[in-house]
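Anyone? Bumping this.
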Amino acid sequence: MIQQILFLIVTLATIFFSYKAYSAIAYNIKLGRDYELVDDKSSRWKTMILIALGQGKMFKYFIPALFHLFIYLAFIFTQIELIEILIDGVFGTHRFLSEYLGGVYTVLISTIEILSVLALIATIIFLYRRNILKVPRFHKPEMKGWPFKDANLILFGEILLVTGIFLANSSDLVLQSRLPEHYHHTGRFVISSILADGIFNGFSTGTLHFLERFGWWLHVLVVFGFILYLTISKHLHLIFAFPNTFFTSLTPRGEMENMPVIMAEVKSMMGLTEGGDAAMEMSEEIPEFGAKDITGLKWKNILDAYTCSECGRCTDNCPANITGKELSPRKIVMMVRDRAEEVGKKIRSGNSEYIREDLKGDEVKLTADNFDDGKSLFDLISDEEIFACTTCNACVEQCPLLINPLDTILQLRRYRILTDSTGPQDWMPMFTSLENSGSVWQLQETREDWINQ
Amino acid sequence: MQENINVKTMAQFASEGKEPDILYWVGCAGSFDARAIKVSKAFVKIMNEAGISFAILGNEESCCGDPARRAGNEFVFQMLALQNIEVLKSYNIKKIVTACPHGYNTLKNEYSKLGGNFEVIHHTQFIEQLIKDGKLKVDTKVLGDTKVTYHDSCYLGRVNGEYSAPRNILNKAQISVTEMERSAQNGLCCGAGGAQMFKEEEKGDKRINEERAGEAIETGAKVIAANCPFCITMLEDGLKAHEKEDEIKVMDIAEILAKGIA
């Protein structure tokens, strides 16, 4: 009875706090601007099934993909057990499903056990790769501090989870033979039966009873803790991989987002508009072009940032990063998440000190539209990074979660050039030449001269 | 060197009351850069050999706008693109071939949102088709048994997914390609894209083109086959940094094939 009450409290608390945390993330993502999404549901479902569920792009690198798959499958299958945990926890039953599923239950739990062992092996290999082998992409500057701890914490969490599962199952199997009236028959689970015969058989009934409960609660608490922990972790990709691949861009990879306001302006300048209608809507307020902060980016760019698992394949393949430049696509994505967290928190606080100076007033409430904390993404991302990108799309190609760091970089670049009118000095003569002569170089020759050279 | 090539402009076609089958988009590099002009000529030689009816815009062509757009200057991009679209439409052009993957990408993927819809192909795709159709005979001894590697440009390869056409052409010429460590989807950029060609690189340990040239050198190849005028410039400079410019040549796919045409 005490356990049931405790379980209810823990479950309700988890639901309450995770609702709050996930709502905050949804709010932060919606701070991004709307944009035109290609409406093609069938491609979207296909992409999601292939890339998120099927891990399609992970298999670019076979070995990590295989171990990642072990952890992934173990995690998915273990959640089936969560259904039983919820029932047992609330109603005080014990292994509720085993009575109804019979032999299927034995197979199901055995499958979870096999996957758990594979996941444990994978976890140890991942810890080894990260901490002893020190795979370079896990040790770039942006991985210092929290991101590094985060990665290890989750791996330790995985070990705890597997430990819990085996403690509960192995103790249970021994108890089934000693106290069959309380611990009804489940069949022999493939791994824990070995542990039961080899080790747990030697323990007293009291100890076993404690270990069974301890393992069960450990499993519950790790899973519940995990649900909450995801919201501050790179492991959010476990959930967000699905929406992020679903909402991936379906326009050609080589197409930069068109800017209709500028197009209309240039068309009217060139006398190309019929009637001169939509062209002049921009005259009212001086517009901002490109993005300098979360609110200027597409909401998908922010979803991208929350989805990032910080694996660093983008950075590992970035020509700028490979040759020692400051640019790291992963860092760009991580900074977008950090800034989205900051801006979201500040706006939700309602603190009027964050209202833009010229819009402040007695009746004015803080909103996303009048928000200004005197900071922007440019405090987190330098011009050196923004202007080092060759737009080669290696980062886009590499990302197993279909994140597009390039899209964010180019929107920041547009802001610098179009709104701030700053940028690399070398580009200024190029722009002038393009404007004046329609060619990247200012030259004496005409475009036809090459024929006779 | 004056080569015997036959090029007409759209204006010339129009004055004769005729229309060519395809427009050849020469691009800034192909028109003005001494090294890239050689590629333009080689490609024209191939089209002449295959008896293709083509024209160029000549002085009516402007930069496609790729460097302006990727440098973030949308105003300049729109000016160039809209002007080009007007010219292309005025000549009723439907099909375009270009030897520059940046122009290829911009005309193919970006002009449509501005009202310009054209069928755009890259010259390696065009040449592959000519060979398939039997319009172009390939000299299978053109490079002898020289070892060749192939550099994927980002905008033909990763961006537009064309990895096979250039390789197939080399294959047809019985040239076996020794791939670099990073190739096809994983190919390393030459360093020119995103308007980097027109600015100094940001601070770093080395230049991107040096890194890429180094990978090409490691294959032991004596020819680096390429498909982009900017890659060619970048790789040649990269080879110079390794002091290998006399040993290893960078050649466009079109130049390799044109060598076999008398």
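Late reply, but here is one note on the structure posted above: The mean pLDDT of chain B is 96.
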